Amino acid sequence: MSLTRGLHLYVGSKRYSSWSLRPYLALAHAAAEFECTTILFDQPDTKAKIAKANPAAKVPVLHHDGKVIWDSLAICEYVNELYPNAKLWPTDRDQRAKARSVSSEMHSGFVALRRDMPMDVCSKKPGTGHTAEAIADGRRVMEIWRDQLSASRGPFLFGTFTIADAMFAPVTTRFTTYGVELDAVCRAYVDAVAALPAMKQWCADAAAEPDTRRENTGAVSK
Ligand SMILES: N[C@@H](CCC(=O)N[C@@H](CS)C(=O)NCC(=O)O)C(=O)O
Q1: Choosing a second label site near 6 at 20 to 30 A (CA), which of 34, 76, 138, 222?
Q2: Cα gap 86→141, rounded to integer Å
């Protein structure tokens, strides 16, 4: 059996599940053949379905060849190892260290941005969620983008698409949804991510799925 057959990614509602978007983009960039199952949020059986797929009770989770791999960054790392030719990390060691640093900063930080501007790829809510803390997080994100894009000359943070772009992709949609002001460099980056075929497919799928999120409930996806 081919090493890469039988990949099955479980994601949350595509409209809202920011963590799920990341490994989806990594798998798509690697041109992996994978099955993708959406577990809609806010259904009576949502928690049970997620818990059945992942002992950690979260999406995303990847099943492959009898293994269960969970956590968005761990899945991206696994995809990178399965598909080395996709160069999901920069080949240069120093660049790779930088890419891992900014990816980890995204993975473990920006709590206010995630809390106050939760991902919703189907809505436009300009001005909503612009708390001082979220805007400060947004400024730091843009500083990372500007530094990287000026060093790499784009269109992606390290030139070609890497896991770092997958990690920041949900933020690009948040800036669009909540109408965060962008300079020309950051605007071009947001547009480059939005133009990825996999990103377009994700948003089309999100628009086609039922919106099961009840208004004013505690969000499960940040
Ligand atoms: N650090 C995890 C976070 C995963 C996460 O929080 N997933 C949310 C949805 S995007 C979830 O499964 N929530 C379900 C719940 O908390 O019941 C990752 O990167 O995969």
Answers
A1: 222
A2: 25
